[in-house]
Amino acid sequence: MSLMGRTTTTGALLLATLLAATACDSGDSTADGASKSPTPAPSTTLSAQPPATSPTPGTSPAGTATATPPARQGQLLRLVVSGGFAGVHNELVVKDDGSYTSTRRDGQKTTGTLTREELAKLREALVDADFAHLPPRPTGRPIADALMYQFTYEGHVVLADDVHQTPGLRAVRARLPVGYR
Questions:
Q1: Fewer CB within 10 Å: C terminus or N terminus of the chain?
Q2: Predicted pLDDT at 181
């Protein structure tokens, strides 16, 4: 191979490597080309993992017992619905007193209050769903463009899609305000 051929091949490989590295690192450079310190970007992706907590007294970080994160003060249930073909991202927070706030992707908020009877039926459905024993993620085959439902109740976070919901989770959704059923 001639010197010109090697130079062209080497240049092409160098350019391809540089472009790949730039694409992977595009969010971590400042305007002057200096590299920022590695800081994880905030994520809007749903996660079925509860926030990290320190172990409860008497347990070791690597031990078999894990701490369940406490529920937010006054919050009964938080449900985030996301995904689908349209890129939905809606959040519902129901408080212990039955008041709720629904926030859509565009920021529009709706508030309301469940009746005593509606709140009692929701509480019953939440207990019957047995969140402590539900898998934290869907166990079946992933469904393309499915809506994902992230339930947070008493420190337990459960992620389910349209197809892989237990009857208990379906019963919880049936007790929620319109738009989350």
A1: N
A2: 78
